[in-house]
Automatic annotation (TrEMBL):
Family, per entry: Belongs to the class I-like SAM-binding methyltransferase superfamily. RNA M5U methyltransferase family.
PANTHER family: RNA M5U METHYLTRANSFERASE (PTHR11061), TRNA (URACIL(54)-C(5))-METHYLTRANSFERASE (PTHR11061:SF30)
Name under which the protein is recorded: 23S rRNA (Uracil1939-C5)-methyltransferase
Chain positions recorded as S-adenosyl-L-methionine binding sites: Q287, F315, E336, D381
Length: 454
């Protein structure tokens, strides 16, 4: 432990290395951890077994962050990146892109196994299910827009900053989004594309979200986030352009007025999971990687007993899980707080001709507390912050014997599972999925059952 060096912001440290293995020396976020000082230093763009000079970019009494300023020795595990991959990596949006896909999978498997072993004493974790596509898998991506230079730039902010890293391609996005980005936003390939780009940018959006999918590849939703009043003529211009090309589904969120504007009153884009069709628009939640989502939903379907149960699909978004499992249940309560999403969920059960789903616009945690006696089985797919303790307590006090918990954050998952285990629930299955290749994020499905069936 080197306690003689006073750590501070901008300090340069020479010949720094982490001698742990590749999979023990990286943090949950994919950063190299240096533990030779009084507080840990998390280093961007450094792998274990590498030697480099680093500069501290952030200091606190609990931890530091740093960047590499000079490599002295690089690891055999490091991939050589092309220009587009380097720009993506620099933004911090894909911190595992420097590793081969097999190394990424091994890192994630090791991380999940360590978390479950250390915190819950569980050693049996299923092998992570890989993504069929390691690039071009995202059906939604958000770009920051920079107007500070002589030209307008699109890209991603570096982590913990407002420094834009411009992107010449969107490697993680699906092909429809990538094509639109390059032929419309970057280098308009026709007069109509140029007019469309100019009209969009005249609104001065702070960021732009693009959403498309592999089912209706001619459609793309364009969401503009603005913070000022809009002149009617600009909306009229966009509507006119939209009439020329109805593949563009344009939405505007005015942060100043806290409201959505859907041009030509569009219903969003159509997505498909197996035989179910879903309309998705605006800020409604829909899984990013559709190929992996199919695998997850099929496993959820198979884990539901062949009984006529009343099932809750909590944090349900536009009702995708509810629709997928409906024919194996007596009734599904699809609960979602986002009003846009519940409105779309109602349309989606009509589109799929399903009659045993009740769509509820409510806070899932609160609804479960008040209606626990109605429920036989719960499927949770919460945001990263996980569940509230009151919700877990309500389940513990109820007759609910079986829970399926789908999580995008292993840390909050472990926290919540600990609460269930303390209250006589058993963890019967843990199945990780690689929903987010090139990033450290992991999706995990857990089957939880009451130790003593009621």
């Amino acid at each position: 432990m080197n306690k003689n060096i006073q750590l501070k912001k901008d300090l340069i440290l020479r010949n720094i290395t982490n001698n742990q293995s590749l999979f023990d020396g990286l943090s949950y976020e994919g950063l190299c951890i240096i533990r030779d000082f009084e507080v840990p230093i998390f280093v961007y763009n450094l792998l274990p077994q590498e030697i480099a000079d680093i500069q501290i970019t952030y200091y606190s009494k609990k931890c530091c962050f740093a960047k590499v300023i000079n490599f002295i020795k690089t690891s055999n595990a490091r991939r050589k990146l092309d220009l587009d991959e380097s720009m993506l990596y620099e933004s911090g949006s894909a911190l595992l892109v420097v590793l081969s896909y097999e190394n990424q999978i091994e890192f994630k498997q090791n991380l999940i196994e360590n978390l479950f072993r250390r915190n819950l004493g569980i050693n049996k974790i299923n092998s992570i299910i890989k993504s069929p596509n390691q690039l071009s898998y995202r059906n939604k991506i958000t770009l920051q827009v920079d107007y500070k230079t002589n030209k307008i730039s699109f890209g991603f902010y570096k982590r913990h900053s407002h420094e834009l890293v411009e992107q010449k391609d969107l490697l993680l996005a699906n092909q429809t989004i990538r094509d639109f980005y390059k032929s419309v936003l970057l280098n308009p390939s026709s007069k109509n594309n140029k007019q469309f780009k100019d009209t969009i940018l005249s609104l001065k959006p702070k960021k732009i979200t693009l959403r498309a999918n592999n089912y209706s590849t001619n459609e793309i939703e364009i969401i503009l986030y603005i913070d000022r009043n809009i002149e009617k003529r600009l909306i009229d211009n966009l509507n006119e352009i939209n009439k020329l090309d109805d593949a563009y589904k344009i939405s505007i969120f005015n942060e100043l007025e806290n409201k959505w504007i859907n041009l030509l009153n569009h219903q969003g884009i159509k997505c498909k999971i197996n035989n179910n069709i879903f309309e998705v628009k605006n800020d409604s939640f829909y899984q990013i990687n559709e190929e992996v989502t199919k695998e997850i939903y099929q496993q959820i379907y198979e884990l539901i007993p062949n009984e006529n149960l009343n099932v809750v699909d909590a944090f349900s978004g536009v009702g995708t899980i509810a629709c997928y499992i409906a024919n194996k249940t007596n009734k599904v309560y699809s609960i979602e707080l986002n009003k846009n999403a519940t409105d779309q969920a109602k349309r989606n059960i009509e589109l799929n001709n399903i009659s045993n789903i009740e769509i509820i616009n409510a806070d899932a945690n609160e609804w479960i507390n008040q209606n626990k006696e109605k429920i036989d089985l719960i499927i949770f797919d919460p945001p990263r912050e996980g569940l509230r303790k009151e919700s877990i307590n309500a389940i513990v006090e109820s007759k609910i014997n079986k829970i399926l918990y789908l999580s995008c954050d292993p840390k909050t998952l472990i926290r919540d599972l600990n609460e269930f285990v303390k209250n006589d629930y058993l963890i019967k299955k843990v199945q990780p999925f690689d929903m987010f290749p090139q990033t450290p994020h992991i999706e995990t499905l857990v089957l939880i059952e009451k130790k003593y069936q009621i």
